[in-house]
Records
---
Amino acid sequence: MARKMGVFSILAFVLYGLFFYWYLFHFSSSSLPFEYQGTSADPVTFMNGRELVLTEEYSKIRNLMFFLSSPWEWLFYILILLTGLNNCFKRWAEDATKRKFLRLPIYLFWLSFVGYLAVLPLSYISYSLSKTYNISTQTFPSWMKDELIDFWINYGMLLIIVPVLYFLLKKSPKRWWVFAWLLSVPFTLFMMFVQPVIIDPLYNDFYPLKDKELEAKILDFAAKAHIPAEHVYEVNMAEKTNAMNAYVTGIGSNSRIVLWDTTLNKLTDDQILFIMAHEMGHYVEKHLYIGIAGYLLLSLLGLYLVHTLMQQVLAKWGREAKIPSASDYRSLPLILLLLSMLMFISSPFSNVVSRYQEARADTYAINMTKDPRAGIGSFQQLTKAGLSQVNPPFLVKMFRYGHPTMLERISMLEEYELKHRED
Ligand SMILES: [Zn+2]
């Protein structure tokens, strides 16, 4: 039975992959609707022929990789459960030490290490692809270093969360998910608080803006939005990528706006100010806090669903999955599988909220700068630097786009421009 289920899972993965290959490469078209052709949103007006071809190729492969990555992870969890590898991890942990409290950390190490090896090929393909298309500028050792940091942070988090989780599962098999959620609230807030000062600096260097003239302009801008000056940072990304980005992160006294140095290097001052105004929009409208509240609400629902689904799966396939009970830590791959599935399924909903906030930040930026040309210029440069699609296929937008498409963002600015020209 376990064998049959394993074969079925692999087949399902292959069929799913073929569907998305067909959808992305043959079915969907990213050409612009007639009325947008020749406008500032049309890539033909700001990219050369080579860039246009590369964008099509690169984004199609990227999109396919995106759609394969979550199910690949699910397949991994299903297969380690069905093949009994999960049981081996536990046995190896028991053989390694007589000290009971060390067994779970050893089991977690094996689970995350083998899981890491399983997704490594996908990460590597993604890295080398991005290198081939000249997006990533990162050397292999530097990429590997980031991968290892990822691994240890992930392991460290499991080391903190999992023992508490199984303590709750043992003590309260029916209500563990409520207690787990209650504990996750302060933990999430704490992680958000320390993210910019502890986690992010492990990967890159953060410092105040280097270009003092530009800094003065930005701080003048920030003062208008009542954002204290010490909350604007630059991060060195040029040695890793050609793409551009800016974002708002952290909460409370650690909240800050971060600009990649690539953004600062490649855009004009007016364009940078537009991007800054967009980030200030997020900051002023407290999008991060709304995001955290939404995340916490969703995670309560998610934990409840994990609880009910896990009971159903164990009642039906507990024997095939070789999990004696939910409170046995061998159920962890099942919990991770369910969480990953729920996250993937819920992503279109969280993306809708995120796209709404992003559209609001764009509106804030245009109202503050009153400079649609700077905004359009910055969006065109962003599209070019990331070889991204202006008008992605529907499913790509639903699952992948936390921002409105560039077609929508640029058209919004063009409409603003038209309207204010008439006034
Ligand atoms: Zn934004």
---
Amino acid sequence: MFDLPAQRAHLSEKYDLSPSAELAASMEDIYARMSRVVSPMDWAIYAPYVKVINDLKAERNAVVLGHNYMTPEIYHGISDFGGDSLQLAIKATEVEADVIVQCGVHFMAETSKILSPDKTVLMPDMEAGCSLAESITADGVAEMRRRYPGAPVVSYVNTTAEVKAASDICCTSSNAAQIVAALDSDTIIMTPDQYLAQNVARDVPQKNIVWWEGSCIVHEQYSASDLRDFREWNPGTRLIAHPECPPDVVAEADFSGSTSGIIKYVTDEKPEKALLITECSMASNIADELPEVDFVGPCNMCPYMKKITLEKVLYALDTMTGQVEVEADVADKARLSVQRMIDLSRKLGI
Ligand code: SF4
């Protein structure tokens, strides 16, 4: 468990982290990336943390990988690279840094460690989990194999290293349909997201797809009737859903795609009004780049992602605590599943 008061005491002894309008003004270039969604008053609070973290990164030869669901002060203030979980893990292998600070949830840090075993991977809050990753263990994968003998197991990247190690190949929400379609088997086991599996089953009708009953607590909350009501009350709004949403929600939307797919769609289409049916920070993080788009409507927050704060990132980098380790034999098997996905995606040109 985190001892927040002790962390705060440690940080305030070493650094001046009091709000500063002067410092905030001197970092106007960073603020410009989030000025539509972060008030000047909040920026004056964040700026001292952003300055100290960015200085420490240089000292430690560290990079920060920020998931699309991070808050704007993390995504734009301290992240060297932003993206979805797989983009970040691949980026972890490419950077020269000694230290990776994973601003996301625990399975993402594990994936970075699996792909970059020689780098130190820091997780600012070890309790930042994921309802999907926690829904299945390696025993669950074994149970599915018993139920469907001979069927290959395709596991979403939102899984623990142990589950990846027990699977045949991984997938992301952007390549799941193509990966499944390319496998040489009529029956395919997909874990752990039942809704992603059902959405893939609709797109790949030639396969018999069976699934584990996991779900994302953020995306399962949306309903098709919510979307119909919203469309009626806000005519002209483009509804854009993540494929972790239930299939009837996806069917009701104008477009469905992974977080990177959503960003590309909104950037290319520039709809006048858009409702992103996904985690709240997605819209916040692209709002300043797309001033012509009015991001409207309700969103759902991921409580796991929101465990990552500037304060926790600073503490992890300062003390080098929160190091993520994956046992070598598990990492070797898990790496095979991830690498098979990367290789197949390249072969398929996706
Ligand atoms: S948004 Fe859903 S899938 Fe992503 S980390 Fe949160 S619970 Fe997991």
